[in-house]
Structure of CLD19 protein:
Amino acid sequence: LAVHIQTSRALMVISLLLGFFGIIVSVVGMKCTKVGEEDPVTKSRIAVAGGVLFVLSGLCTLAAVSLYATQVTYEFFRESTVPINARYEFGSALFIGWGAASLTMLGGSLLCCSCPAKERRGQQYYRQTQPSTAREYV
């Protein structure tokens, strides 16, 4: 096979593996699961790691589909002996790939937004209560 097809295939396999591990890591990082740590800050950090894996998976998918589309465009406009009706055109798989990459990166970025706030050690605020014996001035 041609080099661009082999490269696209390798990028898609990497994307599938990253997406698979992203699913596993983000399920472990969900607050509703009992897997792993019980600390909510640690769970949030694990969910962010899953989001990063999803974003990387989407980028690999986007690169693979765009590489193939670039090659198709190059072959289409290149002067060759191949007749116009026998040349490749964009198929629905390319548009599905671009849509899947966009949705994967959107979902990963939403998971990354669940980043925990910085811990507020030593900044605990206590509510001051009213004294039990209030003085009344008459």
Notes: The chain is about 60% helix and 0% strand. The helical segments are 3-29, 40-77, 92-112. Residues 1-81+91-113 form a domain with the Butyryl-CoA Dehydrogenase, subunit A; domain 3 fold (CATH 1.20.140.150). Residues 131 and 137 are 16 Å apart (CA to CA).
